[in-house]
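Build the 3D complex.
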Amino acid sequence: MVNDPRLPEPLSWDTFQQGLWKENPVFVMLLGLCPVLAVTNNAMNALAMGLATTFVLICSGVLVSLLRKVIPKQVRIASYIIIIATFVTIVDYAIQAISLDLYKALGAFIQLIVVNCIILGRAEAYASKNTIVNASVNALGMGVGFTFALLCLGGVREVFGSGSLFGFSLFAPSFQPWSIFVLPPGGFFVLAFWLFLFSVIKERRKAAAQLKQEAGNAS
Amino acid sequence: MSGQETSKQPARPRSSSLIIALTAISMTSGLLVVLAFQLTLPRINLNKQRALERAVFTVLPESTVRKNYYLDTDGLTLLPDDSFAQANVYAGYNDQGTFTGMAIEGSARGYQDIVKVLYGYSFENQSIVGMTVLQSSETPGLGDKVETDPEFLANFIQLDARLNDASSALANPIVTVKRGKKIHPWQIDGISGATVTSKAIGAALRDSAGQMLPLLVKYESSLERTIPISKGHE
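Done.
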C-alpha cells in the first residue's frame, strides 16, 4: 500500500526508525556530507556535531509543525530558514558556554548547520505536513541516524589517525598513528568504506528477501 | 482548509498577511536569540577568561595572579580585572604578589591561517620563558605539532630576547632554524614536518618582541612591581 505523502501519517515505529536505517541521511540519502567529512577527525567532535544537529532538527521540526497552518505557502521556505537559523544561533551560544575548545574544534560548521539540507528537507518534507509528535519523533530518528553516521566516521578516523577513542589512548605509546586518517583525504576514504559496507548489507538483505519470497511462492 | 478547492488555483493571499507572518516569525526568533545570548553570556565570558588565564599561567610558570594591561606607544595602562578583552599584555604575579613576568600576544601567518601565540617574558633574565598557541588552524598531525611536541616547546623555556644597548630593538632577532641546528640561545629548533608553522611562531615572537619589549622597557615605571595579596584572593 502506498501512503499518500500529502496526508499526515500515523505515528509508528517506522516514523522513528526511518532516519536510522532506511533513510539514513548520510549513508542512504548522502545529505549533509560537508560536516560529515569536516568535523569527524575525532569521535568527540563527531558526537558534538551530531547532538547539535539533532537539537536543531527537533526544535525546528516542532516549531514548523506547530506553525504549519499559520505560515502562508508563499513564504514557507523563508520562514523555515528563520526558524532553523534561530536554533542554530542558540546552539552556537550554548556550545561556547559549554566549552570553548569544542567550539574552536567545530569552527564554522556550527553556523553552517543552517544550510544543512537534512534540516530544511525535514521541515519541508515532513514537519510541515505532520503533527508535532510525529515531527519530533521523526526528527529525533533523523538526528540519531546522523549522529550515528558521524560517530561511525569519527570513531574509525580517531582510532587509526590518533590511536585513541574519545581522547583515551588505545594503543601502546609505540603506535605510529596514520595521520592521513585525520586529514581530509582520510575522511573521503572512511566515508567510502562505510558507504560500501552499507550498500553491501542492503543488497544482501534485498537478495535474502527476494529469495524468501520466491521460496514462499514456490511452496 | 485549502483542500476544498483542489481543482482551482488557491486564492493568492494578500501580501499583508505574508508580511505579518514573516514579521511575527522574525520577532519571535529575535526574542529567542536575545534570550539565549543573555543566558549564556556570563558563562561564555567566564570560559574565555579561564582559557586566557590558563594560557597566561602556562607561559609564566611561577604566576598565580594576573593583571590586565594595555600597552601602546602612548604608555602602559592598568585595566580593571574583568576587561581582559581590551588588554594586550598581562602581568603575572606569584603567591607573594611579586611581579614574575609579562605575557604578550604575537601573531604571524602560518600554513593555513594566522597563528596567534602568547609568550611570557621575564625581565630578570631578559628572555622568553614560555609560549603557548592561542589560535591556529594548522594541519592536524603536521602543523599542530607545535602545540604538543615537547622538544619544540623546550625551546621556549629560556629563549634569549635581550634588547640592544639603546633598548630600541632585539639585540639578536629570534629566528627558527632547522631541527638540530640551534647554536645560539635566540634560535628556535624547528620541527621537521611543521616547518612553516614553526617558522611562523619564530616570526610571531620576533615581530611582537621587537615591537613590544622596547615599549615595555620604556614604560616600565607604570608597572606595579608588587600587588597586595589578600587571603582568599582568586
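The beta strands of chain A are 164-165, 168-169.
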